[in-house]
Write a structure and sequence with these properties.
The chain is an alpha/beta fold. It is 35% helix and 17% strand. The structure holds ligand MGD (2 copies) and molybdenum atom.
């Protein structure tokens, strides 16, 4: 239950004793079991298992403990001794469970038995696996494949993901949205178009050689804490870190390494960012235009005085297109407009630009602060522009580095989980499996939600995740959900998406990645791809949470076998028995990336899948890296209006997406509740509000739909004017479904237009 509510400022560094206490506080006695310590030691190690938390790279030379506070929390969450059994479901109806909090649902522990929804009693009742597969297969056979959705949440292995995508295509659709559609899809679309590679270009080596790193909208301390070690090392060798973020995130301010005894004893923190710019939410295009304008001014001055360039003119000429139009527009943009839109001064932007200019090699890091905006594509395009000005893509120590979310989200896209048929090697699939893959574009997450509301989606399979809690316009989507004919959820723990069900509904419990996976052919291993495009083997060793669990791969194959007609090239049972046969299929489908897959998968540090942009080969429409002429300064999807604020939906340090570990956000000094409205003291006063007062947020998107979240405690917090903060997923009813990035359809969760109303 929620701790006593208190809010204090947190001035301590990220990491340090706080992170050890943070783990102990949540887990208490669970932390002390010896097998847990052994499991944690194997996390992110060669021949160990890939952490189930974030996707940050796993170095070849690992630390004794290659895990962080949040990685340990995620592992322990999976290894909890608590069990959510058929008994539990016999005691509670779904109607009752829908009134429970997310935290209390997951606290029930690991799911143990396959369950079927019984509409007569409104309970989940246990069933046999065979019965579940047959019933699901019969349902899927009976509907138009175009109305079925196969969602994936970004954790399932490459092997499972490959087969899941194959299943969808054999079934006859490309409806394969994944969590990436709410996350880095903006990256996949923008980087593909601009530099010809849908993923980041950096490897660990670049972090070891760069002279400066820019950070836009990524919260390293909470969301990819192992990355703090790389940042600390970089700062110590003189690399400068410049951050743009509306929120002062402690991990980007200073850090004590909890794995370094000297630092722990002395509590000597390393300052991380040398400059911290609290840009307005949605103000990044303006800030980046400001940086570019300073760079152009420096070029003019230096050329005039010394006949020396600041720009990398050779690179621009040889490798890019669109520079002149871009530069003309930047030069013509006024400082007044840049300052107003970014909330930063010309001088402050000048300081940041100076670091950029003085650094020979720059890495550009970013996260959800850029991708989750209506003009998120433009954010990334402007960031790429800045990097291209000095040839900072495609050489050692330089590059662009989106920090990915789920531990295998990037990999799922690599092996075919995509709604876009043009990204899939359909000719190879045709050759291997003797069928014509569907060529009609499938549904993104937003389209799925719209389809559920319109009644055109009839079946939903969830391979992990908590779709109904993570999506925008959450209440509207949830209200329409019971109209579905079939819902199937493959999961480790109970969540809200399991409780809002279709007419026919199954809840299928699966093994987690830390658990031993034994099939007909013996013990199995799986693979994942990290944020730095390295592919790793992962071996689970823990005893399964229940003898009735099946692996995700076995469940996908079980459903597929009962759904599809026999095909001499498709062997669901054989593949379930031996995952190396699936790796062979992956290798045959993607030989450039996965050659010698079996031999390389446990190589320390993983094997690198390569990146053309890193080699300065630009697989874009023009064959060059593309400058984009900015057409706007704000990434917001609606204009300014009196009383309208920009709501940032944030993650606390005590959550993994919709999984809430606890009610504390240590770094931000918020304790005991997640129902807060963060606002700066000046704005609070101007709005006539008092700290601790309970208010309501109302959607302000001018579309005549009422959207509200009530019961929020006014909490003074250091934020730019006009911005508010609140937690994801509690704020999700406030985001209109149509409020998404224009190109990729990623929901714009970081600049939601709202008003404050008194309750
Ligand atoms: N412990 C833990 N780890 C996680 C997750 C988790 O929930 N918990 N989630 C995983 C997943 S799926 C993902 S995608 C990643 C997410 O990791 P991040 O990319 O870090 O995502 P967020 O925490 O949503 O927000 C990032 C930062 O953007 C800032 N921001 C908000 N609006 C703006 C803006 O307009 N401009 C700029 N410049 N900054 C802005 C916020 O203040 C915040 O610091 O983390 C992954 N790792
Ligand atoms: N307002 C707002 N909304 C957002 C965001 C935001 O920043 N703001 N972020 C978006 C982002 S970046 C993302 S990625 C999405 C996340 O959306 P999802 O990926 O759908 O959600 P998660 O919360 O990660 O899913 C948690 C559930 O996954 C299941 N699970 C955990 N481990 C496993 C496993 O090993 N196998 C299986 N089968 N199931 C497992 C458990 O049942 C758990 O309850 O949310 C998006 N929504
Ligand atoms: Mo994500």
């Amino acid at each position: 239950m929620a701790d006593k509510v208190k809010t204090v400022r947190y001035d301590g560094p990220a990491g340090g004793f706080g992170s050890l206490k943070g783990i102990a506080k949540i887990y208490g006695t669970e932390w002390n079991r010896p097998e847990i310590a052994i499991t944690l030691m194997r996390q992110n190690k060669p021949d160990g298992f890939a952490c189930v938390s974030c996707a940050w790279g796993k170095p070849a030379k690992s630390h004794p403990f290659e895990f962080c506070e949040n990685g340990a929390k995620a592992t322990l969450w999976e290894l909890t001794p608590k069990r959510c059994t058929p008994d539990f479901f016999a005691r509670h109806t779904l109607t009752e469970l829908r009134t429970w909090k997310d935290y209390d649902l997951e606290m029930q522990g690991r799911l143990t038995h396959p369950m079927r929804y019984d509409p007569a009693t409104d309970h989940y009742v246990p069933c046999e696996w065979g019965e579940a597969f047959a019933a699901i297969g019969a349902e899927l056979k009976g509907i138009d494949p175009k109305s079925a959705v196969f969602y994936a949440s970004g954790r399932a292995s490459l092997e499972t993901s490959y087969l899941y995508a194959l299943f969808a295509r054999l079934h006859g659709h490309n409806n394969l949205p994944d969590s990436s559609n709410m996350c880095h899809e903006t990256t996949s679309v923008a980087l593909k178009k601009l530099i010809g590679s849908p993923v980041g270009t950096c490897t660990f080596e670049d972090f070891e050689h760069c002279d400066a790193m820019f950070f836009f909208g990524q919260n390293t301390g909470s969301n990819s804490p192992r990355f703090l070690h790389d940042l600390q090392k970089a700062v110590r060798r003189g690399c400068k870190i410049v951050t743009f973020n509306p929120v002062k995130e402690p991990g980007l301010v200073k850090f004590v390494n909890p794995q370094d005894p000297v630092q722990m004893v002395t509590q000597k923190a390393t300052p991380i960012s040398c400059q911290y710019h609290q840009v307005k939410a949605g103000g990044d295009i303006a800030a980046l235009v400001g940086l570019a304008k300073h760079v152009l001014a420096a070029e003019d001055a230096k050329w005039a005085a010394e006949k020396v360039h600041v720009l990398d003119v050779d690179f621009i000429k040889q490798h890019t297109e669109g520079f002149d139009a871009f530069a003309d527009t930047v030069r013509a943009t006024s400082w007044e407009a840049i300052e107003a839109e970014s909330g930063l001064t010309r001088a402050a932007l000048g300081d940041a630009a100076q670091v950029y200019i003085e650094a020979e090699k720059v890495v550009a890091v970013y996260g959800m602060g850029l991708t989750q905006h209506v003009h998120g594509f433009d954010n990334i395009a402007m960031y790429v522009n800045l990097m291209l000005m000095r040839g900072n893509i495609g050489r050692l120590g330089a590059g662009i580095s989106p920090v990915r979310g789920h531990s295998n989200v990037q990999g799922q896209r690599t092996v075919g989980i995509s709604e876009k048929p043009e990204l899939v090697p359909n000719d190879r699939l045709k050759e291997l499996f003797g069928f014509d893959p569907p060529m009609e574009e499938g549904m993104t997450t937003v389209k799925v939600c719209q389809g559920v509301i319109d009644g055109t989606v009839h079946a939903f399979l969830g391979l992990g995740g908590n779709f109904l809690r993570a999506v925008p316009d959450q209440e509207r989507v949830e209200a329409a959900w019971p109209g579905l004919r079939l819902t199937v959820q493959i999961a480790t723990k109970l969540n809200r998406s399991h409780l809002v069900n279709g007419k026919v509904a199954y809840l299928l419990p699966c093994l987690g990645r830390t658990e031993r996976d034994v099939q007909a052919g013996g013990e199995q291993v799986v693979t994942v791809e990290d944020s730095l495009s390295c592919i790793h083997g992962s071996r689970g060793k823990h005893a399964p949470a229940s003898p009735h669990l099946r692996s995700e791969l076995a469940i996908v194959c079980g459903i597929a076998r009962e759904t599809l007609p026999p095909n001499p090239n498709v062997h669901w049972d054989e593949w379930t028995g031996d995952y190396s046969k699936v790796r062979l299929l992956i290798e045959q489908t993607y030989p450039e990336i996965f050659h010698d897959f079996e031999a390389r998968m446990f190589q320390p540090g993983g094997f690198y899948k390569g990146n053309s942009a890193r080699e300065r080969v630009w697989k874009t429409g023009s064959g060059k890296a593309e400058f984009t002429t900015p057409t706007r300064l704000s990434a917001m999807g609606v204009g300014e209006a009196k009383g309208r604020y920009r709501l940032i939906t944030m993650r606390s340090n005590d959550q993994f997406n919709t999984t809430i570990y606890g009610y504390n956000d240590r770094f931000r000094g918020i304790h005991g509740t997640r129902h807060v409205l963060l606002i700066n003291p000046k704005e609070m006063e101007a709005a006539g509000l008092k700290p601790g007062q309970i208010v309501k947020l109302v959607g302000d998107a001018e579309d005549n739909v009422t959207r509200e979240v009530d019961g929020l405690r006014v909490t003074p917090f250091d934020l730019p004017d006009g911005c508010l903060g609140g937690y994801y997923p509690e704020m999700n009813p406030l985001i209109p479904l149509w409020y998404h990035d224009q190109q990729s359809k990623t929901p714009a969760a970081k600049g939601v237009p709202v008003r404050i109303a008194t309750s």
